[in-house]
Amino acid sequence: MTVENLIIIGSGPAGFTAGIYAGRAELNPLLITGNEIGGQVAITYEVENYPGFPEGLSGPELVERFQKQAERFGARIEYDYVNAVDFTQHPFVVRTQSGKEYRAKSVIASTGATPRKLGIPGEDELIGRGVSYCGTCDGFFFRGKEVVVVGGGDSAIEEGLFLTRFATKVTVIHRRDELRASKILQNRAAENEKMAFIWDTVVTSINGDENGAVTSIMLENVQTGEVSEFATDGVFIFIGHDPNGWMFEGQLDMKDGYIVTNRRMHASVPGVFAAGEIQDNHFRQVASSVGQGTMAAMEAEKFLAELEDTDYEVVKAEALGLELAPA
Predict the structure, then answer these.
(1) Residue ranges of the chain whose pLDDT lies below 70
(2) Beta strands at 82-86 and 214-221: parallel, antiparallel or unpaired
(3) Annotated catalytic residue within 80, 86, 138, 200
(4) DSSP line for 39-87
(5) 150: Cα within 13 Å, side-chain hemisphere
(6) What are the b/e assignments for 301-317, b being 16+ CB within 10 Å?
(7) Is the four-CA dihedral 64, 66, 69, 71 of positive or negative sign?
């Protein structure tokens, strides 16, 4: 079986950036995309704060440019999903949903995060029938209708503003009495005549009709306990994300689902690195993920250079925390 120099797991900004740098270093990296190429930025309507694009550009356009640049420098793209890894042996083992198995001298994990659910009655049953986690993807289907947005951070307000292009009214429901979004987004929302707000309130269930389409939600005021029903055609949920790190459990040091790394993107096993939201639960920006992907690739290159003069058994012993028997 061919042993890859470097496998990059994930195709968000961190993964593609790692592919660009590893490709330029002539490592011939293999990048396995995951289920959604581009990660979260691929479903972002407009990216305004990425350096070098003063006019902004769409998330899908940015992902396309990332991919073209990575492929230009020799990164190979495999459209598959990693569902298991084995870092207890070296070369490392990476297995995919399609049944393929790869061996790699080094790995960069950049699997990102997925939207968090409310976990309330009706949510799962009505996904795709009025419940959505992506305004950019589904906003068109709510042209001329009224929708609600659940959440109060940047993502919720960005997506809410985008939805006003289609919906006649967008009501933001937030469990606190003020938004957590940046001031510029708060100002835009306050000035948009199509946007309204319900404060100190949570959604407790989502209701549908006999055809399986969303008709209303049940609300509860967290201050008074008052319960009410609110009619709506769609529910867009933006309450955060959970890291996609389950395949690394038991293989790497983790905390709250995130891979633990040092400042140079090293995970707990030598030769394994992590970049982007799988290890970053604080910044969560395209620009920061790009920087982390850069560092991870540079450190992987350094690891591989040192590996050329190192026996695989030494690497395996370090990964397992074992001591080699005297020669």
Answers:
(1) 311-327
(2) unpaired
(3) 138
(4) GGGGG-S-B-SSTT-TT-B-HHHHHHHHHHHHHHTT-EEE---EEEEE-
(5) 27
(6) bebbeebeeeeeeebbb
(7) negative
Q: How many CB atoms lie within 10 A of CB 84?
A: 13
Name, in order, each residue with C-beta under 8 angstroms of 123's C-beta and a sequence gap of 6 or more.
117, 131, 206, 237
| Cis amide bond preceding 91, omega within 30 | yes
Query: Of 97, 118, 126, 93, which Cα lies nearest the Cα of 107?
Result: 93
Rounded to an integer, what distance in angstroms lies between the CA atom of residue 228 and that of residue 86? 50
Q: How many CB atoms lie within 10 A of CB 2?
A: 8
Tell me which of 80, 86, 137, 280 is the catalytic residue: 137
- pLDDT in the model for residue 128: 85
Cα–Cα distance between 50 and 153 in angstroms, integer? 19
Query: Tokens in use for 79?
Result: 């459209």
Two structure tokens written together for 200: 């100190």
Contacts of 321 (CB under 8 A, 6+ apart): none
Considering the candidates 80, 86, 124, 134, report the single residue annotated as catalytic: 134
pTM for the full model? Answer: 0.81
The H or E element containing residue 286 is helix 286-307
- Return d(Cα 167, Cα 146) in angstroms, integer: 6
Residues 6+ apart with CB under 8 A from 103: 1, 2, 3, 4, 91, 92, 93, 94
137 among known catalytic residues: yes
Residue 153 corresponds to which tokens in the numbers above? 């951070």
* pLDDT value of position 180: 93
